[in-house]
Amino acid sequence: MIGLINRIIAGLGSIAQGLLNLLPTSPFQVVQGIDLEWLQAINYLFPVSQAVAHLQLFVVAVAFYYALRAMLRWAKVVGD
């Protein structure tokens, strides 16, 4: 019985890994890889690459919060 459950979990893990492999790389890596002279001048005054990295972290945190909140609502753990 335990072996069957382990195989089911392993199968679900490989399905999830396959779905994650279909996703594209981060769009923010394109912005960080741009090598233009005027962008370097702007980056000297305002660190654009660091701002983009912090914005990415913020968006991921907010998306995780809303996803977790929705799952908890479905499970009837939290109210409106």
Give short descriptive properties of this protein.
80 residues
> How far apart are the first and last residues' alpha carbons, in Å?
39 Å
- Uncertain segments: none
Mean pLDDT, all residues: 83
Amount of beta strand: under 5%
Q: Classify the secondary structure makeup into a structural class.
A: mainly alpha
Q: What's a quick, concise take on this entry?
A:
With 80 residues, this protein is an all-alpha fold. It is 78% helix and 0% strand. The chain has one domain (2-74).
Description:
The chain has 80 residues and is mostly helical. It has one domain (2-74). The chain contains 4 helices and no strands. The protein has helices at residues 2-22, 28-32, 37-45, 48-74. The model has no long low-confidence stretch (mean pLDDT 83).
Topology diagram in text:
Elements: H1 2-22, H2 28-32, H3 37-45, H4 48-74
